[in-house]
Structures are given as structure tokens and as C-alpha cells.
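Exercise 7. Predict the joint structure of the components listed below.
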Amino acid sequence: MGFLEISNVTKSYGSTEVLHRVDIAVEEGEFLVLVGPSGCGKSTLLNMIAGLEEISSGDISINGRVMNGVHPAQRNIAMVFQSYALYPNMTVGQNITFGLEMHGVPRAERAAALADVAKLLQIETLLERKPGQLSGGQRQRVAMGRALVRNPDVFLFDEPLSNLDAKLRVDMRTEIKKLHEKLKTTMVYVTHDQIEALTLSTRIAVMYEGHVQQLGTPKEIYDTPANVFVATFMGSPAMNILPARVVVRDGRAMAQVTTSDGAQTELPFSQQTLTAWEGREILLGLRPEALTDPDGADRKSANIVPLRSRIEVTEAAGSDTFVTTTLGGRDVIARLRADAEATAGDMFDFAVNMEKAVAFDPQSETRIPGA
Amino acid sequence: MPARTPAPDLRSRLQAWIPKLVLSPTIAMMLAFVYGFILYTVYLSFTNSRMLPKYDLIGLENYQKLWGLSAWWTAVGNLAVFALLYISLCIAIGLALAIFLDQKIRGEGLLRPIYLYPMALSFIVTGTAWKWFMDPGIGLENTMHLWGWESFEFGWIKDRDMAIYTIVIAAVWQTSGFVMAMFLAGLRGIDNEILKAAQIDGASNWNLYRRIVIPMLRPAFLSAFVILSHLAVKSYDLVIALTGGGPGRATELPATFMYSYTFTRNQMGVGAASAVIMLMTIAAIMTPYLYAELKEKR
Amino acid sequence: MSHVTQDSTLRTSRANRVLIYLVLLLFALFYLLPFFVMLANSLKPLSEITGGNMLALPRDWTITPWLTAWSSAQIGIEPTGLRPYFLNSILMVVPAVAISTVLGALNGYVLTKWRFRGDTILFGLMMFSCFIPFQIVLIPMATVLGKLGLAGSIPGLVLVHVVYGVGFTTLYYRNYYAAFPTELIRAAMIDGAGFFRIFWRILLPVSGPITVVSVIWQFTNIWNDFLFGASFGGTAQPMTVALNNLVQSSTGVKEYNVHFAGAILAALPTLLVYVVAGRFFVRGLMAGSVKG
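Solution:
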């Protein structure tokens, strides 16, 4: 049994079910990220953990205690909101200690706790200010301080970085990660940003249309996505998905792909299970970094395959150069080294890292087991 | 699927009830004093109540009697004239003043309160002021005579046919500044870039207002119409203070009719029937408006 | 609305601008004139009014009409002046405004932050009740006030004004609180604050502007009410009713100067409020009418 146990939880508004039978068990000290596009149900699930929305069926328990119907204040949780939700009429110090005051903590203890948190977050000089006088990043810190001071069983974060500008967002992301490593408290974090999900989490639940599509470590999610949705949602640029046919040569499964000039190329799979799919259509999944120039290919891979195709567009992005070509009739993006010589309109020799390739069933769009 | 485990704790259950408890005195008052009373008045309108309420139903007799009374027809006719002129004049003056004030006028801060202050005065005070201002003996007519315009005549307030227009003048004076403020708020809410785009498209000022700005003020028009029409139907104080319903019965409105039939002529059943008609008139205007408003805000 | 600085970007010709200023000034005159006439003539002896020009300033300045209106003019049958009625109005307005504002604030809080099934319908019913013609409730109200023993008393008038004013105050607070972020309420819930604590500590400290609006609106409406005062005032008649009795009295010589002084006295509190806090008053009217 997990520290935070979500079992068989559903949420309905009237007759429409918006969250379908969610089962997630979170161990103590884990950092779980709920990620998905807007409307996928991730915030609803977080609010149910917080006790801000009622559970339609199923159970949520924290530290062995079933929390259904328990008031948010009694759950020993703390939450950081997207808008920070700082009380505008109170100073920073009062904002941070309001929860302690409500729980009847004596003044002296409150002051001590405030001092600790202020030091940890380096906001000692801001304590007398009102939220209106703070910058976005400072507000973010105060909101975190308000959560930290409670010393809760579980921290809940509801898209806490989405109101910050790009640079600050990266900085705060690192700080949250550091904080988790220091405190080792269980955290549940909602975001629509797949990079935040991959960098922060110990485990990720990818959600879509009220279903948990996949629950796993960042590496599992990235390398072996459960279905086409997860494959394309996680990672940027998105994983290339192209139609291919499985052929078997000398007992080895190969993906037969049409290149830009209509020629057929065969790419040998590393996974042997695919021989069962001989002669059938599949969807081949290739991450942009698995489709690169020969010098940029992963030297540790035992299965690098050459592929000749015409470049249509090149986009230099500083650290990498992204080029677009056509495979299987679809635009696919390849990630080349920054100084790879690629010119739009030319034929180019790509190197495909087939160790990283995945294959999906075109009907169900789920990953073929073992592939 | 496991059954719903433990019942919510006491505090949570109490918390769930507090909001409804807090709301309940207002709801109770409203149901009793507004909707209960409405039902009661509707019931009375079907009884032969005269000086005191009676509970014997007599069907539609009061309504038949009401629509047979020339005094009621006068009141309804007056309301039609009054409401039409009051609403259209307030909107025309309010819109014109708002558009003019919106042209970067020097002294806007001084003019705006001058236009608005009548709104702070009661209709009784408004009526008192205008009653003497329009009195031929000491008011405007007298002043013009003293200034040498001997043939000037302004005796509407004593004229059966014209007295209703004096009520329109006083009412427009009291409310049009407020309508101006509503339109001004609407104008200030329009995105400047839209105006710039229209000017680049070559629209003249006239076309800019006719084709772009005024159509965008639709919500302000709607609000002004709803508020003015409900004020018109309710108008009572101003008539009492300005003309007392006279000369004769020339400026009687449904509101004054209802009052005199119910409380001084002891025809409570007829009075109740007239109140029901007034309510139905307002409901016909308000209900679609409220419905749209609440649906939007959900 | 005065904080909105955006002006239209139109260019207008010089001739047009002159015309615009002319129209604006003409209307300013239209709005000012009746009040000027009242004020000027309230400071004249009666003979100067009946024999003179109403637009002229007084030749013999006198405050006697004001003193008469305040303390000795014949109201109905008693020569009491308006003073006791002014007091009645104050005694009626203060509690009625206070109670309806407090109820409105709590209602607005519930209707925006503690929503429940059917709350929109209840609010719709409340809003509709703001706009009913009060003639529809006059008969039963008279009966009920009699049964409660409140007929013709100040508590009776307070009750009436609370009942028919709470819809508006609720409307104001609801619109105001609707714009207040619900995340703050959720944060306070997680922090352990209950219903009243959230209201008291989080919402009320930021409710200043709307409270000013609600108080001014209620004050103006209740002070200026005539229908309820005339119907249920009894011996506790408010200022508006007394002024009407003074002006309409058919006995003796019509003392116009006293009537004018009385009218200004009756208008003074709302005018004062308007001068001091007119900007909020306007904003309040907006909140109640224009969307947003």
C-alpha cells in the first residue's frame, strides 16, 4: 500500500464522467507529476487529493488514512496554486503563517517556523511587504513558503510555474527539484509542460481524456511510450510516427519504409518479437535524435542503419539543426549536430538508431509488446 | 468497487451547511415578502375585497371592471406616452452627451458631476423644483414676461393635454445623466485599436459611430432600456409631487391609480388587479433579460 | 470610471468642437437651473418671489425660510417643521442600510464562493425581486406589518427597506466577489480557515470599495423613498413624505421660499454623500447595470 493511494477513483459531474477509474500508488518521498493537455482531468484529480472537490467513487488515502469527505484542512497537505493565491491584504509573513495560526500554533512557534522557511527560500527581506509589491518570482517563493511552513505529509502543486517567464521558469524548476531532494517529502505536481514533467519527477502519470495513459519513470515514459498519444505528447520535437510494413530477412524483422523519392528502404529492428508481425502494417516511432547525421549518431548503439532521403527544410536552432524530410509519406523531423552540412533540396545520408525505435499497432495505437 | 468509506467528519458536514444557513434568512424573506406577497395580491385580484381583504373568489370580474374604467385607460395611455418619451429621450440625450464628452473635452471632470447630480435627488424634490419652475405664475413664463417677451406662454402643467409632458421633462432631467454615465462607461470600454483600425479603413467620424461604436454599445443600450422601462412602470413619487395626478386625472399613471383605488377609494380588488397588470408588464421585460444575463454568467 | 483614461482617438474639426462645447454647456445649464432656482429663491422673502424674477439673485438675503422649514412650518396639522421627520429618516436609514449591506455581503460570498445546486435560480429570483413594482406588495405588506405590530413604526420601515434592498446589495457583492480569485478561498481552506474566518480575514479586508458603493446606493434609495414611507410611515413618516405634505398643503398662503428650503433640506444628505463620494456612486450604478 502506497503512502498516497488513489484507488479506483472516478469523478462525474451529473451524468458525465470526467475521470475514469484512476489507480495510482505513490511511495513516500516520491515526486509524482500529472501531465496532460488541458481538460485531461489532472487538475480535477489534484483537487480531489486536496479535498477541494468531492470524489464520485473510489478512495484516496494518505499515510494509511482514508481521506474521502475529510476537510482539506485536516488532511495535512499543502498546496501551491497556479495564481499563487496570496492573500492580498496580508503581509508576506502573515501569508506564510496564516495556516499555522488557523491550526492554533502559538505565536512564538509560528515566528520560528517563519524564520526557518524565510531563510530556506531566501525571502527574509520581503516578510513585511504585501503581495502586490512583489515580482512574479518572489510571489512564487512566498507561495512555496506558505506550503513549506506547514510541514505537510504531501505537497500539491497546481501548475505553479506557468505564470512565470521562460527564464525564471527554468530557475524555479531547478529550485523545486533541489527542495525535493532536500526535504524528501512526497510531492504531487500538475503541469501541461512535458519538460517539467520529465525533469522534476520520479514518476509521471500521463493523462488524456480522463484516463491515465501511462504511469512510469521518466525514462520508461520517454523510451517506451504506451501508445501514440504518450509518444507524441512527451518530448519536443514530438516523436515521428510513420507507417511502415514489417518484412523478415534471415529471421530478422525489418521495417520497410518509403523514402522521399519513392524508394523502399529496410530498417532492421532490434526487437525480435516483431517477426510475428511479418507482412503487416505498423506505425514506426522514431524520436528526432534517433534520426541524425552519421557523425552525430549514438556510438554506444549496436544498431545504426544508414538511410538516404531528401532534405526539405532546415532549421538551425543553435545547439542542434533540425531538418525535415519525408518518410512513409509523412513529414519527419531529424535532429542533426549544429554544424552538420545540410542544405534544403539535397539528398542526405541519415543514420537511424534502430535500438531506440518503437512500433505501434495501427488499429489500437498502443505499443506492440516487446517493441 | 468498494463502498463509499467513512462518512465525512462532523466539521466538514457542518461546514457544508453553514453557507446555506447564512443564505436562508434572505431566501425566507424573499419567498415570503416578495413571492408570497405576489401570490397573495394575485389571489386578492380575484376576490371582491373592498376596504379590507376578503377571500371569496369572484373570477375575472375585477379585471373586467378595471378595463372598463376610463380612469384606468387614461393611466395606461399616459404610461404609454410617458414611457416612450422618457426612455427614448433619456437614451438620446444620454448617448449624445456621452459621445460628446468622450471627445477629449476639457472640463469633463466638472461637467460629469453636473450631469449626474439630479440622480441623487428624490423624485419628490425633483417634482417640487420643477413644479414651481414650470408654474406660469412665478416660473419660466413669468420670467420671460419680465424679460420683455410678453407673448411667451408655457402653461403645460395646468393644461390637461400637455401636463403629462411636464412629467416627462422632470423625469428626463432626473435620469438622463445616469444614462449618460452608462454609455460613457461603455464607450470607454471599447478597444482603442478597433477605432484606429476603422480610421485606417477610411471611416468618417459619422460612419465610425454609426457602424462600429454604437453597435458595440448594445449591452449598454439593453441595460439602459431595462432600467428605464422598469422605472417608468414604477413611477409614482414624481407624479404625486409634480401634478398630484392632475389637472383632474390628466396625469394619472397605473402606479397612482393602484394607490388611490386600493387605499382611498376602497376598491382593493380592482387595485390588486391593476398591480398584477403592472407586474406582468415588468416581468415581460425583465425575464428575458435576467435569463440571458444569468445564463451568460454561469 | 474616472480611472479609465482611454479616450477616443478621433479628430474633430474646429467648428465641430465649438458646437460640441456649446451643446455640453447648454445641458449643464439645463441640469443646474432648477436647483439654482430653488437655492436662490429659498433665500428670498416671499414677496420677492411672487413679485419678482425667479432667476434673479435675492435682493434681501434671508435665512428665515430655512429656519421656518426646519423648525416651525406646518406639516400636516402640526407646526413642527421638518426636524422630527429628518430624525425619523436618520433612524430608519442607518439600521436599514447596515442590515441590508451585511446580509448582501454574506449572500454575495455564499453565491460566488460556496456555490450549490440551484444557486443561480435563487439569485435570479433575488434579482427579479429588485425590479418588481412595489404596488404588488403594498396590500399584503400593510396587513403583515399590522399583524407584527410594526405598522406605522420605524422598525416596520426598516424591515421593509431591508427586505426590498437586500436584492441590490447581494447583486453588488456577488458581482464584486465573482472577480475575486477562488484559488484564494481554496488556499485558505487548506490553511484551515472555516466559512466565517475566510470571510472575515480574506474577503472583508478587500471589500472596502464595494461596501462604499453598497452603502451609498442603499442610503440614497432609502432616504429618497416615498411610496413605503407614505404607505407604512404612520407616525414615523420620513423626510420625503413630510416635504410632500409641506409643499402640497392647501391651507394658508403658499410659502414658496419655505418649500424650496425644505426641498433642499430633504436633498441635503444625499447631495452631500454624492459630493463626497460621487465617484463611487457612479461606479456603483455601473456595477448594478452594465455588465462586467
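Discussion. Chain C touches chain A at residues 181, 183-184, 186-193, 197, 201-202, 205-206 (CB under 8 Å).
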